[in-house]
User: Fold these one by one.
Assistant:
Number 1:
Amino acid sequence: MGIRSFISNMIARDNYDEVMEYLAVTETQHAPRFEFDQAPEQLRELISVAETPRSPERSKWLNDFAEKTWAVPDGEAEVLFAKEHLNAVRHLNQCLCKANKKLKQDGYFFCAFDTSQKRRAQIFSKYPKIIAYIIYFFDFLWHRVCPKLGLTRRFYFFCTRRVRKVFPRPEVLGRLYYCGFDVVGEQYIHDRYCVIAQKKRLPSTEQHSYGVLIRLRRVGKDGNLFNVFKFRTMYAYSEYLQTYIYENNDLDVGGKFRDDYRVTEWGRFLRKTWLDELPMIVNLLKGQMKLVGVRPLSQQYFNLYTKELQELRIKTKPGLIPPFYVDMPETLDEIQENEKRYLIAYLEHPLRTDWNYFWRIMGNILFRGKRSK
């Protein structure tokens, strides 16, 4: 790129409408749409009105519908419409838990919010790119970081008369699952992201952290669950989307989810360089893992394995360095066959098997450039 082209690009602005058309396709690529074979009449009417062009009559109808549904006694609402967009809610989890309490079992909750991608599009369409990058950086710190840190949260809400928190799409979806919902539909209506969720259980009582170091529940020896320590590579609350991702995304080469939108750009770098797994040394020192061994899996992913391999897996501790890098299997069946060979060999000759696998893995990584995605 020449100097003139570079300068021209940096002073240009994005076309907001084109960006939103692109997001309407890409952000919902693996998401179910608002197409329900069986749905309450209230929900069908709500969707129909929401999809009409914006007007004072539309706004009044939606506001009246929200007031009417929230006035229903706890546990009796069939359809609930969020009174305001989620970005303007100060205590979002409390709001979602209240919605859960208001709905009957399998009741529907319709909510809307502005995604972080939309916020970026707004900034880059308003300012030249060289200025937009600077504004976006400080906007990110102010509206996404400050509301979540204990040291800055009160200051943020003190300074912000009207709450305008910015949420990545995976965080809102994860919060819905955390608060007892299953997501049954997602799509843009006009330029606002809308989600329909269904009440399936009571809200979770697990403590959640926004810290860079996270703890993930994994299946260990004897089938016992333990906490694996890793650096955060996904958006907040993404861990609660495991089942939803599996139902709507295909598995990619290597057995991981294809187009996993839960992973941040910084997280992709950490994963590619394996830096995200450094904290697992703590698990190694605590005796929960060993150096060479099969990957520690979540309960949901563990359940995808055959019964035979599940029984083999829980006979030994998971490892930091998996046998995956010996054969580089591509499908789930190939991964299971790869792990089965290792586990059978390990149970017969533990030290010799791990010694041989360690050097074969190191050779493939260091000299043959084998990597997982």
Number 2:
Amino acid sequence: MAITPEEVAETRAMVSQQNLDLRTITMGISLYGCADEDMGRMCTKVYDRITSTAQNLVTVADDLEREYGIPIANKRVSVTPIAQIAAACACEDLSPLAHAMDRAAEALGIDFMGGFSALVQKGMGATDRRLIDSIPEALATTKRVCSSVNVASVRAGINMDAVLLMARIIREAAERTVDIDCYGAAKLVVFSNMVEDSPFMAGAVHGSGECDAVINVGVSGPGVMAAALEELPKSASLMQVAEQIKKTAFKITRAGELMSREAARRLGAEKGIVDLSLAPTPAAGDSVARILEIIGVGECGGPGTTCALALLNDAVKKGGVMASSSVGGLSGAFIPVSEDAGMIRAAHDGALTLEKLEAMTCVCSVGLDMIAIPGNTSVETIAGIIADEMAIGVINGKTTAVRLIPAIGHQEGDLLEFGGLFGSAPVMSVNRFAGTVFARRGGRFPAPLNSLRN
């Protein structure tokens, strides 16, 4: 389908006036050929494979920015979950592989690299456990490496032993980086139903069903969506609101489809998916919370918020799938507290609580994202929060995730400052009544009845 001059003019206005950008171009790279029983050789193979495959990623992205006039906020790489290639090596500490990934990221000039990851939804193998135990060291000693662990799925249920272990790992990652506002925990996410093709960090991996190299693109555009909705009168019905969201999502996704197609061609990689998530930033006017308030909620978190978010999420998907035949990843509306100026304000005002955020995750794109909690929160409480969110994903058959930041040395109401797209995180109140028994029962939460689909 040809791009018309009117669409070009409209896209330029969205870029210059409404913060439209391509949030990320992410190259997924298979590392299956890098397995080796010697850690040094495997690190060399990983470094060489990544740098040779993605050597032109930044150059091509910069060229596309200039030619099409659409900013690309991040250039990223995702790789095969490292636990899947490390079994041949007997080393207990797998963080050298994270160091090789970090060196490759620095050499390429990219922003983040995802894939220091394991999938343990049904059980943990020896290599999975070694990788998970290595996460705090890996995140504390690298700048660009992100980590993710899948502990639940519709088909497997919830691995509760992994949930408790990840609660400990999250706290340790925060403790190891307390000098930089516990930033290590901001690069770690726990998943239910992890997808194989997400371009967004910290949860991007290159799944086993993917080809050797693929380009996945994440679009954004909360500012564009907010501007479009502000054109509607307050008397507009929710049906009219949904139609406006659909039309705007189509326009945003068209830009991503064009850029992903061209990037894949120039890089000689397979064209992957367009993730049409509305990903906010701390910039003024680039907020999902603001969209919900334009729809009519008094302040994000107030009554009606979950319904408004459900409407937004559904309409974004309906509009986006008409603009690309390759929509995938997560695709919906993100609600990361630290990365959204409106969410930060709502949390400060007390309108947005952890419990309300959990309710919102039932209908949004991911889950409890970039939430700072008091530093003295117990491991059992963190495990309970993870378990609750995993249950939402398993029972409802959707991807959910938890990215918590235990703010060591900080109390409720304090502010953690990360800068850049990660923004700032207000330390939020946490329900203290988790107890100690539930998180330590272990075993596996059985797969729900809706897992029997054969």
Number 3:
Amino acid sequence: MASSMRRGGIFGALFHKSSGKAPGTPLNTSVLVFISLFIISAALLMFSNLNLVFNAKNIGLSIFSGIRGGINELSSFVSRTVLSVKELADLRREHAELLKQLERYEELQHSSAEIYQENIRLRDQLGFAQTLRYRYIPAQISGRDPNNLFSALVINKGSVAGVADNMSVVAWQNGTQALVGKVIYTGAFESLIMPVFDINSQISARLSVSRLEGIIEGQGNPESPLLMRFVPRRAMNEINFGDIIISSGMGGVYPAGINIGRVSRVTVLEFESTLEIEVMPMLDYSRLEYVFVIEAETNKEGQE
């Protein structure tokens, strides 16, 4: 047995034992095939296990790579979303600030336009003031009498500025000087004016061309025409549409020669010896802002 193991090794001993052949007999072909197949199978099994390990490793790497990529994409998306929200909030804040700036610029532009127009009006009023033959007190319409909303006007000058009752008030509008009315109440810093359209107003007047005289009365509404009464009926043919009517100076309240309005209609009253003339005021009282309270006629050198 020992010599058999020395000659053929373990396999040879096994072969000789199983075959019953004496030691020293050549190996059977089937045994060689078996051994070859065993070796090949072992090699294939080894290589197969190795490929399986490599495939598992590759699959694991792929899975982890995919997870890592997904996490990176997710974190990138979240970061971009957070940044987008922050940028949107910043844009909204900037938009709101720009809107506020635009409103301020529009207000400034509007104020600038108002100041420009105000300067034009003031220069216009100043030019008119320099041509007045009277001592005058410039004033601004500041309101209306709440007890007489459609008639009495309030100005921002009173006795402290030299205004007194029964002073005449004139204005300059659209290149025309015209009579506003007269002061009927004087306070320390404000005064009340009765305009020519007041129902209690009566003004001695005349037509500037024919020099016919009459009395101008108001109808209580600035939109209604004034009425000139007591003009002789025989003067019907001497009166034309658009003739200017001025103050006559009779009675000493209103200075002579101040424009009042224009003839808009002439009515012949039945059983009357006089005419009734409708007169449209030269002033648009809804746009009246500045007036001049006149004290007395004077020469240019004595003008204040």
Number 4:
Amino acid sequence: MIFHIETLMLVSVSLNEIYSALTGGPCVFITSRSADGVDDAMANAWNMLHGMAPAVVTASLMTDHTTTKNILATGVFGISVPGTSLQKKLLASGCCHGWEVGDKFVKCSLEKLEGEALPVPLVGGALAHLECRLTEPDLLARAGILVGEPVAARVDERYWENGLFTCEGRPESTMHSAGEFSFFTRGPVRGW
């Protein structure tokens, strides 16, 4: 199934292959919706895979933030992997709090893409999207460690090649944290 978002064409990908979109720990948007329907998107640089086939994702969140509260209330969240064209919006979403601004999609002028399998917003224009179920609510509530199981995944078809996510030779790259307000882009990938 193909989806059109501006000039992007998203294709559904296997949950056994989506791990490649998060390999190397790109900065991502973690998205959620409150129980009363207010959407939230936060920047996250502390994320990783902790399973591959199928993927299991882990991220570090603050226990008192809106995103954490939304995920605990609904049991679902999204991950959108932005390319460099979303750099300023990713930074903006990480520099304000949902409890202060309300809907961060509106505040940060983020295009909204609805989840297909779960009631979560995703960030339109991102290169890859995962819709996830929370699997360890007690761990999230106690320590801010988010563990989720993707139930649906889509990727911009230009960044999907031979069952893997790639930025090499593409118009955009993923961003990776190099400390506060600094990042580097994904460089060429070489075999071991």
